Amino acid sequence: MLFAVFLLVVSLEVIESRFLVKTLPGFVGDLPFTLETGYIGIGESDDVQFFYYFIESEGNPKDDPLILWLTGGPGCSALSGLLYEIGPLTINYENSTLEKAILEIKPHSWTKVASIIFLDQPAGSGFSYARTPKGYIANDTLSAMQIYQFLRKWLVDHPKFLKNPFYLGGDSYSGIVLPMAVHEIYNGIEVGEWPQINIKGYLLGNPMTDTSSDYNSRIPFAHQMALLSDAIYKSAKENCRGEYLNVDPNNSLCILDLQVVEKCLERIYKNHILEPSCEPSNPSETNMLGRSMQSLDKTSVDAWPLPQFQMHWCREGSYIYSSTWANSRDVREALHIHEEFNDIEWVRCNQTLRNDDGRESKTYTHNVPSVVGYHQRLADKNCRALVYSGDHDMVIPYFNTLNWIESLNLSVENDWRPWFVNNQVAGYTMKFLKNNYNLTYATIKGGGHTAPEDKPKECLSMFMRWLANNPL
Predict the structure, then answer these.
(1) Could you report the per-residue pLDDT of 180-199, keeping only the tens digit for each?
(2) Is 448 found in the same domain as 377?
(3) Which of these, 375, 54, 357, 359, lies nearest to 201 by C-alpha position?
(4) Buried-most residue among 14, 187, 376, 406 (CB within 10 A)?
(5) This protein's superkingdom (predicted)?
(6) Helix 230-240 vs helix 252-265: angle between axes, to the nearest 10 degrees?
(7) Are strands 89-91 and 66-70 parallel, antiparallel or unpaired?
(8) Are residues 281 and 156 in the same domain?
(9) Nearest 10 degrees: Cα torsion 177, 212, 85, 40
């Protein structure tokens, strides 16, 4: 606790470590937007070095909102969110090879209407690192405070953005850390901490919120989506009594039912149930009983030889291109990666920060199992929230997200209804109110765990309407 307090009172002095990036390997010509990369030191003696990509709004950066975007994991790189979800660049797979990725402009980038900081956090994610072993030790609570400290330092170093409306955004496992970081920001404002952050709200995509209920909703979701028969689901529900995460080892009937469930689901890509699975067919590798809820973004690319990715498209196979790109020397030079990182391999998602196969990570402690209480406290603030769910995600099923939102006991301003893009149903939405707090919930029809990756046009439209405070 003493260390946590220290983090909030350390110097906000920022040692100059930011660079304007005008060109990138794999992209033809100058970048048509403003990209800055840099490092900001966090914690005691700036032991932790957080790397960020900052892209100014392509609209009106002087007045457009500023977003700090957190990728999930924990341990997934901000480059994943930038290239695959909401950033202005993506990979041109048709013209790329595994040795050389070709970049192209993404037409539905959220930077059309907002300036976005993509942050590699915690240490060990992307290009962020620590100078001592102690710096790699983190947990949910500490991560939230480190994000807050990073934001304060970044704004001191970029004072022209202090007046811009600020939102904190993220998806997947960020659903745990982000509400706590938002709470830190509001607490800082109330006690007069400098700089004063002009926060207006937060946004979350397919967010992990409550470890137990999020996990336990997977099997009802599988039944709802016709992946389990009525008989299999009924038996599992009765014998396990709705508890599929912490199973009594003496409950043999439940364990037998879950083995049947696993047989039905082992070749389903849980991030998007309609897409091909890249995971190995060995049941021991995909055992739902042995896989922790924190394994949200697991990439199993090492399980298959590369030629199979080229023969059979699957989303996880496409992520290989970002690894070869980020690990090339010319890319690291263009991004101005610290020399201290030279011998460290960039990975899209650092598996050592997860709880895989029921084993707690040696460096990251998942010490907050539920953040519903943080959302309840934020509902007393002057705050706007957007929560959205790809409705084909089995990792964080949409109805469980809606369940915890409804548990906040907010008033319903607009009940369940479709929302449209180009006169087509893009999903369904509700809006909730409590005094100066309002929360918009939206499903993305056909979207998966990272909905902007699957439905970029629809998600950009949702984001723009919400920013403008217009109904979806």
Answers:
(1) 999 999 999 999 999 999 99
(2) yes
(3) 375
(4) 14
(5) Eukaryota
(6) 140
(7) unpaired
(8) no
(9) 20
Tokens of 443: 């499903």
Q: Which of 77, 80, 128, 172 is catalytic?
A: 172
Tokens of 469: 């405070």
Q: Is 21 exposed, middle or buried (0-12, 13-18, 19+ CB in 10 A)?
A: middle
Q: Which structural domain, as residue segments, surrounds residue 286?
A: 214-301
The CA-atom distances, in angstroms, between 110 and each of 138, 292, 358 are: 30, 32, 36
Last residue in a domain, options 249, 269, 301: 301
138 shares a domain with 52: yes
Strands in 134-255 per DSSP E:
138-139, 166-171, 199-205
Question: Are the CB atoms for 208 and 176 separated by under 8 Å?
Answer: yes
Active-site annotation holds for 172: yes
Query: Distance between CA atoms of 32 and 389, rounded to whole angstroms?
Result: 31
Q: Is 95 helix (H, G, I), strand (E, B) or coil?
A: helix
Chain position carrying tokens 């970044």: 154
Please check whether residues 272 and 207 belong to one and the same domain.
no
CB 391 within 8 A of CB 113: no
Last residue of a domain, one of 245, 274, 301: 301
Q: What is the CATH number of the domain that holds 88?
A: 3.40.50.1820
Q: How many domains does the chain have?
A: 2
β partners of residue 138: 364
Residue by residue, pLDDT tens for the chain (472 residues) are 333 333 444 456 665 689 999 999 999 999 999 999 999 999 878 999 999 999 999 999 999 999 999 999 899 999 999 999 999 999 999 899 888 999 999 999 999 999 999 999 999 999 999 999 999 999 999 999 999 999 999 999 999 999 999 999 999 999 999 999 999 999 999 999 999 999 999 999 999 999 999 999 999 999 999 999 999 999 999 999 999 999 999 999 999 999 999 999 999 999 999 998 875 543 333 344 333 333 344 443 443 444 444 545 778 878 889 999 999 999 999 999 999 998 899 999 998 887 654 556 778 999 999 999 999 999 999 999 999 999 999 999 999 999 999 999 999 999 999 999 999 999 999 999 999 999 999 999 999 999 999 999 999 999 999 999 999 9
Is residue 108 part of the annotated active site? The answer reads no
Cα–Cα distance, 243 to 213 (Å, whole number): 9
d(CA 365, CA 363): 7
